[in-house]
Amino acid sequence: MSRLLLLSSSRAGTTGYLDHAQPLIADFLGANPTPVKRVLFIPYAGAGKTFDAYLEQVRPAFAAIGLAVEGIHQAADPRAAVREAEAIAVGGGNTFALVKRLYDADVLDAIRERVAAGVPYLGWSAGSNIAGPTLCTTNDMPIVEPPSFTTLGLVPFQINPHFLSGKPAGHNGESREERLAEYLALNPGALVVALREGTALRREGDALTLVGELDGVTFTTAGEQPIATGSRLDALLATGTPA
Fold first, then answer.
1. Torsion angle of alpha carbons 217, 219, 223, 226, nearest 10°?
2. Can you give the CATH number for the domain in which 67 is found?
């Protein structure tokens, strides 16, 4: 049974790093059939800081809810670290860097296998984006070239984190809605779930729920539809179509 907590962001408004997410993470990991004491953190999305610095940034938020964190980059064998993980957390940053490094470490299949076996997976920003079939609805610049845009496919629909509707006055670039419409024009069978900051998707097997204080949005070639916070979105697990 797949267990996922896919956070749009590491912060909500002016809150501290992962502060808003601590209750969600504590509840998610606390509900695991096997008690989680240690989390394997994957810092590969970090592009402007070292992996060690990223690990130390993440540790206090997990320590506050009684969890120890280990970095995959410190493991002699990254695949073995994934196979032995009690829970897997993938942080935000640059999605292209994250995906390239996951391919370089040859851990994508190992993560999929562990999640399929029931090991809880949580991510934020880029770490949530890669839970979909591809990275194509990321907001990031392609600062490196991964071998493929194919990602984990833990859910059958695309994810767009940090969703912000509209655009500021005087801005002549594309809005997020326009960018997603471009994606759908060339991938007409796809479904995109857009998550506003401070919200998350939680999957428990065949059950999928939008959590947080704000609504979400789904995008298809037929248009966009709002998702009320607290909504059960189980049907998306059956109807979401990979790009």
1. -10
2. 3.40.50.880
